[in-house]
Amino acid sequence: xxxxxxxxxxxxxxxxxxxxxxxxxxxxxxxxxxxxxxxxxxxxxxxxxxxxxxxxxxxxxxxxxxxxxxxxxxxxxxxxxxxxxxxxxxxxxxxxxxxxxxxxxxxxxxxxxxxxxxxxxxxxxxxxxxxxxxxxxxxxxxxxxxxxxxxxxxxxxxxxxxxxxxxxxxxxxxxxxxxxxxxxxxxxxxxxxxxxxxxxxxxxxxxxxxxxxxxxxxxxxxxxxxxxxxxxxxxxxxxxxxxxxxxxxxxxxxxxxxxxxxxxxxxxxxxxxxxxxxxxxxxxxxxxxxxxxxxxxxxxxxxxxxxxxxxxxxxxxxxxxxxxxxxxxxxxxxxxxxxxxxxxxxxxxxxxxxxxxxxxxxxxxxxxxxxxxxxxxxxxxxxxxxxxxxxxxxxxxxxxxxxxxxxxxxxxxxxxxxxxxxxxxxxxxxxxxxxxxxxxxxxxxxxxxxxxxxxxxxxxxxxxxxxxxxxxxxxxxxxxxxxxxxxxxxxxxxxx
Length: 496
Hints:
The protein contains 13 helices and 21 strands. The chain is an alpha/beta fold. It has a domain at 1-169: Leucine-rich repeat, LRR (right-handed beta-alpha superhelix) (Alpha-Beta Horseshoe), CATH 3.80.10. The longest helix has 21 residues, at 44-64. It is elongated.
């Protein structure tokens, strides 16, 4: 017997209520419910009447489909409050066979009592194995982490947990309580935690990571701590404790805007890459304190991993224009023999300081990544000019397996001399077959274009080309399409 429900919404004044069954699924036990509130300046009594009617529909629906296994509810921005949470929880509690629950309650002013009501209802679903809770911006107070921690810890059989608590005033005590709940779920293989824009400190970070590291079956971890108070010590603790996740394969980490300096970021990365089965690492370190390296002397730094295949590092907006003095240039050496794809996003690090430019962008030695197939680098808005040669090509030319290159130099001062360097360097990548080159807004002229043509023509294995030459000083743009046709590329795109 399959589920039946209308895909057409019931509209009651400005309240839209929709039931939807996944018609493409072979499973007849999936139900998705979505409320969309579009209230204007109606009288309060009329609003209340509409809400009551919608809740009556919901209760009737949940009674009819009480045998479902998969339930998705989206009530974003409906201001249901604690009373609505009580009705919502009662309906969920009827579904004793639930295996997966996806509950999106962003912007609903639930408060502590609303969270408690949800906990009491959801806890009755004893068979739950997948839990997705989005409780962003819900006026949570000191008791909410306790209720959520108790809820999570009651499902020791969970294999997948997604917890989103943005803008919810979670502090170090709240982080500790939530962490203790997570540590009870020893069967977790997938964990997503979104704690952006909270009040988590060094100690809160340590508590969370220590709890996560106790989940020894974890293979996927997505941790977002943007705009908290992690700082250097917190990042170092994170790197130290995450090594205990012996089965971790994918780690996505966002530490944007947390006052972390370069040296601490490096040490954290060094420790993270010691996870023995880590395959995919995506780390966001933009808008931190990399400019705090003033006056320090560094030795070469090694990042080593024998398992890593995909590495993505974002370093956007990490340097303001200031006096930066580096006595000895640092080189970061990547020793990742199985690395297939490397992405470095370093846009908007505006500085004229040549030492720092060499330090951050050119001092990356990845010649030991012998299997690197794809390399993407974004150097948008970095004031790169003739005094800042792209020494990165010295490394690229040594990578015999490199086939795909994306080089984004938009908004620099590359000019004619920069294109001259490209003419020399591009042909030195022997097996390059796919090239994306963004030279928009770089003061390049017709001579620059000739240099580019000469360099590209010498890339004998090139089959796919995409190039942006917009907002420049090129008059004879017609030359490039003729040249491309002669090159006999499989695909090409020119943005003028």
